[in-house]
Amino acid sequence: MTTTHESVRLGLLARIEAKPEHAQEVQDLLTNAVALAEQETHTTVWFALRLGPTSFGIFDAFGSEEARRAHLEGKIAAALADSVPLLAEAPDIRPVDVLAAKLPAA
After folding, report:
1. SS3 of 44, please?
2. CB 62 within 8 A of CB 71
3. What spatial distance separates the first Cα and last Cα of the chain, rounded to whole Å?
4. Neighbours of 94 (CB within 10 A)
5. What is the pLDDT of residues 43-75, one digit of tens each?
6. How far apart are CA 72 and CA 50, in angstroms?
7. Contact (Cβ atoms closer than 8 angstroms) between residue 11 and residue 58
8. Which phi and psi (to 5°) does residue 22 adopt?
């Protein structure tokens, strides 16, 4: 049975829908947010995704509930909250459990 690494037990999966005229701004926001993710020692992995012309996503993983909660209260969440005028709807952010993961060797 494959188990997940302890540093990626829990995650967040966010879907973000930009207004068509603001898709590039949302892409830029997410691209630049990697610098903020790199500052979060408790965020094990962080991915910004483009799902379609105006659809984006974020997946990130953590080793503990405390780390996940800290991320939700951090700078990336604040930047996303500030971007609400660029969005067609509120971001759909869901907590997830990571069942299995393949990570590079340490």
Report:
1. strand
2. yes
3. 21
4. 9
5. 999 999 999 999 999 999 999 999 999 999 999
6. 21
7. no
8. -120, 10
